[in-house]
């Protein structure tokens, strides 16, 4: 049996709109959520055109597909997804002449995108992780849809057929978990570390911190819940309320003070030339499908959001420093940098909100431009909800 993809009807309308454009091919990403039984696709996003392509149509040969451009786009988009959402696969809309060779191009893209996304992750996949990713092909002339999956854990994986089923209001009532995590991470910079490699040291420090988050205790609405129970167990649905409304669960994170069960621990003495301190309160959020979700699914999505939101912000800050200040010089002075703040933007017809980050001096217009470029979504300034205070 192949996998079944339940797809938001708006995704079908979006793909139809793209296939009406007279182009040899259009590529893009599929965004949604995996679960053991079925997968959910709530967004499709076309690959943004490169500056030089904006005037001309892309080359009619599939060999000209820019793999690096597509994987860079996937990495940028993954930063804008809250917990529970991920890049589920890749789509291509092609003319009948290119249909045959497009399957091979799709396969390469599915593996390339997954490799790029895995490289950035600080969390470890669990044993029962779904590793199938979708490769969707649409013929621009006949509108025929062919969906296949590849197991991205197996480089020799062959295509398996999958069902592609449209459904209305698919994510109109997905429950959400919300939490604020107070961060105070101290990362020593070893004297032996070459040229104060801040980015590498920060990533190592975040790696250690992410293991603490994985081992933390999570209270949902003030209670510890068994992982195999249903998340919404005991929560009554409001009768007669057909409006899409989010059921929010408030989560508290209790990190353990000591690691490991042994009361004895060994201390390491290291010669340091400085340190990095990450301090502040970060807003974290995860969404989970409403088909009897388990507590462990929801908490796994939230843990990943906590880890992602901090590592993504550090990445964004370092990129910004490189653009604005050039290569980092050795500095023995105390420096303060404010990490970008998190914001959320609603998705039409869904309770799910997409995420992004803004520096204090960034105008709403820049955020609007980014949503159009990365997610092909126009956003009104009043729909941009900044979720937190600025953090150092």
Automatic annotation (TrEMBL):
Q: Does the keyword Membrane apply?
A: yes
Cellular component (GO) terms are: endomembrane system; membrane
Q: Which GO terms describe its biological process?
A: intracellular protein localization
Q: Which residues form a coiled coil?
A: none
Q: Which UniProt keywords apply?
A: Membrane, Transmembrane, Transmembrane helix
Where does this one sit in the cell?
Membrane
Superkingdom in the source lineage? Eukaryota
> Known InterPro entries for this protein?
ODR-4-like (IPR029454)
Purpose: May play a role in the trafficking of a subset of G-protein coupled receptors.
Can you tell me which family this protein belongs to? Belongs to the ODR-4 family.
Annotated protein name in UniProt: Protein odr-4 homolog
Look up and give the organism this protein is from: Centropus unirufus
- List the taxonomic lineage: Eukaryota, Metazoa, Chordata, Craniata, Vertebrata
| Gene behind the chain | Odr4
